[in-house]
Amino acid sequence: MNDPHVDHPSDVESSRSFIIVEIIEYVPNSVVIKTIIKKTTGNVSVVSFDSGEALAEKITAFDTFIQVIDGKAEIRIGGKSTVLKTGEAFILPANTSHIIKANERFKMISTVIKSGYEGLM
To answer: How far is Cα 33 from Cα 117, in angstroms, rounded to an integer?
Structure first.
C-alpha cells in the first residue's frame, strides 16, 4: 500500500468536454489521484490503481460515491468484500472503515459531497 500520488489542481478545463477514462494514466506500482473539482462543499476525483495496490484502511466523515470506469475494484467494509466492474457504482457510507483494493488495475471516479452534514460537526 503506497501513498497515492495526487495531482492538484486539475488541468481539466471548465466548459469543455473530455473523456474521463483518458484524463488519468496507470502508473506502475502506484495509486494516482487527479482532482477534477475541489470545493469546500465536496470534490470529484478520478483515481487509477495499478494491480496489487490499495488505499490504506480509513474512515471518512462523508458519504463517498464510487464509480468504476475501467477494470475491477474490490471494496471492503467491515470485513465484507464487494467487487465492482466497469460501469458499476457504490456508496461508501460516512464514518465506516473501508479499504479500496486493486486485484487487477482499475480506474474510478470518487465524489464526496460534504453539504448536509453541517449539524453533525
So the answer is: 25
